[in-house]
Amino acid sequence: MSDLLATFGPADSDAELLTRIAAYRPDRVTVLLENVDADWASDESRTGEAIRDRLATLMAAIERRTAATVVGYAGDRAQLEGWRFDRELSAGLPVPA
């Protein structure tokens, strides 16, 4: 069983990170969107909608490409304190878990 944390930053790097996630072939993936306002989930503005749409698109793409279970997502890294991952991937270089 492999658990992966995928940290997404700017949207222009999404395709590259999705490709790297698929190459790793994880069993479970947790998605973290960086630089998102704390109230993104209840924000009714266009910005809030865009964040939720992007998150849904990313989660669906990960499921389609990997057949992995997307177990959750977080808007802030602090929400993941105590969680363990076999690997972390982000738009930059891979980060050891």
Spell out the helices and strands N to C. Answer: EHEHEEE
Radius of gyration, in angstroms, nearest whole number: 13 Å
**Structural shape:** globular
What is the mean predicted local confidence, pLDDT?
87
- Percent of residues in helices comes to 25-40%
Strand content: 15-25%
Terminal Cα separation, in Å?
15 Å
Secondary structural class: alpha/beta
Which stretches are poorly predicted, pLDDT < 50 over at least 5 residues?
A: none
How many H/I helical runs?
2
State the total count of DSSP E strands.
5
The biggest sheet, with number of strands, parallel, antiparallel or mixed sense and barrel status, is:
5 strands, mixed
Q: What is the number of independent domains?
A: 1
Q: Please list the strands of the largest sheet in the order they lie side by side.
A: 3-2-1-4-5
List the helices and strands and how they pair.
Elements: E1 3-8, H1 14-24, E2 28-33, H2 46-66, E3 69-74, E4 87-90, E5 95-96
Parallel strand pairs: 1-2, 1-4, 2-3
Antiparallel strand pairs: 4-5
Notes on the protein architecture:
The structure is a single chain. This protein is of the alpha/beta class. It has one domain (3-96). The chain is 33% helix and 25% strand. It is built from 2 helices and 5 strands. The chain has helices spanning 14-24, 46-66; strands at residues 3-8, 28-33, 69-74, 87-90, 95-96. Strands 3-2-1-4-5 form a 5-stranded mixed β-sheet, with helices on one face. Helix 1 (14-24) runs parallel beside helix 2 (46-66). The model has no long low-confidence stretch (mean pLDDT 87).
